[in-house]
Design goal:
The chain has about 375 residues and is α+β, with helices and mostly antiparallel strands. The protein contains 13 helices and 18 strands. The chain binds guanosine-5'-diphosphate and manganese (II) ion (MN).
């Protein structure tokens, strides 16, 4: 789960990592009030789960509280690459002497935590890695051994920073490490980590991602979830307790069992199609469960065809067939649905569907045939 900048900064502050003073605001009036409380020059920053806000006009300086209200008015409601701005962070403006980059990220391949430091900050790290690979220092930390001072020295010298930076940088990373471990993060990124005019290191930005699997241990972080920022289909699925992952294609996929659904995605891709999602209805064959799942899939405007893949074990295909028919009738779905029924009571199931004579419903006996049918139907609909 990704946190907003202001939430990440709260966690930074809790481990003693310096961040500018500030508060989040949901309206221009609130932004004005926060600016008045802070006094002096402030920066107003869009809170969205995407970087590059500065370039998109989502980060603006303001000299007076009235000006803070004006820029907040411009920023709230803005769309930054598909992310709607609902809140801004208003914080005291910083005097930047230098912008650096610091991050800890879980490296699954290495089974370690990758620490990165660069003397070039404030721009996308992919860009830095590409244009100035020598300026990006990397050190892998053994999660069991943890952070040590020598990691900081290696990062500092690796990034070409002076010996005077070893202690302050080491201190920043020790605190980042503390936050990473304590809050079970998968990523903490500070870009830019600034050196102020008076020589202090301050986290000017915060990107914080926590491991969803550990959220049950962190009620306070779980409560930071921004429901409004979630993908609408994923949000709907979560409310219904449906296991759903959104993908990019136009063929809605559902099946019973995670393994079967994953194979279905492969078969659809193999047949030349692009799955719109992963959806596991589990053992659910009842009409209510099927309606619930289909509602999530059909609410995605990209979906043109639905591929319903059932392998009957304990789940009986005749029950599924009745469930599908009830769901179509109840929901009035008019897009094509390809159903593959195989396993327990499959003959009865296919017969039920065939005798219902629903023109949009196509039954196949094998997964590959069904995938080809779904891909052909999706392609045909483009014309
Ligand atoms: P991002 O573009 O989404 O990564 O947003 P950032 O929080 O990193 O801000 C983008 C840029 O705005 C930073 O790299 C800084 O150059 C600038 N910026 C942000 N806050 C301040 C500030 O308080 N003072 C000044 N002078 N510049 C700031
Ligand atoms: Mn940034």
């Amino acid at each position: 789960m990704d946190l907003h900048e202001y939430q990440g900064k709260e966690l930074f502050a809790s481990v003693g990592l310096p961040v500018p003073r500030g508060s989040v605001a949901g309206t221009p009036e609130e932004a004005e009030r926060v600016a008045a409380e802070l006094g002096g020059r402030v920066v107003v920053k869009a809170q969205v789960h995407i970087g590059g806000r500065g370039k998109a006009g989502g980060v603006k300086l303001a000299d007076t509280p009235a000006q803070a209200r004006e820029v907040a008015e411009q920023i709230i409601g803005m769309d930054i690459r598909g992310h709607q701005v609902r809140q801004v962070l208003v914080e005291e403006a910083s005097e930047i002497a230098r912008e650096l980059y610091a991050a800890l990220v879980l490296d699954r391949g290495e089974k370690k935590v990758l620490a990165m430091l660069s003397g070039i900050g404030g721009m996308e790290i992919e860009q830095v890695a590409h244009d100035h690979p020598e300026a990006l220092a990397r050190v892998w930390i053994d999660p069991l051994a943890g952070w040590s001072d020598y990691h900081g020295r290696r990062l500092c010298f690796g990034a070409g920073l002076g010996a005077d930076m070893v202690r302050p940088i080491g201190d920043v990373f020790a605190r980042l490490w503390d936050a990473f471990v304590r809050f079970e993060a998968t990523l903490v990124e500070v870009n830019p980590l600034i050196l102020t005019a008076d020589g202090r290191l301050v986290a000017l930005d915060a990107k914080f991602s926590v491991d969803n699997n550990s959220l049950y241990r962190h009620q306070d972080i779980a409560a930071m979830r921004d429901v409004a920022a979630a993908d609408p289909q994923e949000q709907m699925a979560a409310e219904r307790g449906v296991t759903y992952v959104k993908l990019d294609g136009d063929i809605g996929v559902l099946g019973n069992g995670a393994g079967l659904v994953m194979s279905t995605l492969d078969v659809v891709a193999d047949a030349g199609g692009a799955p719109a999602n992963f959806l596991d209805v589990g053992g659910g064959a009842k009409a209510d469960e099927i309606v619930s799942a289909l509602e999530v899939i059909t609410s995605d405007p990209k979906v043109k065809v639905i591929f319903f893949n059932i392998f009957g074990g304990i789940t009986r295909c005749d029950e599924v067939a009745r469930g599908v028919l009830t769901a179509i009738e109840r929901m009035g779905i008019d897009m094509p649905i390809v159903v593959r029924l195989d396993g327990t009571n499959d003959v009865e199931g296919r017969e039920i569907i065939e005798t219902a004579h629903v023109s949009t419903l196509h039954v196949e006996a094998t997964m590959l045939e069904a995938a080809h049918r779904a891909v052909a139907l999706a392609a045909g609909m483009e014309r």
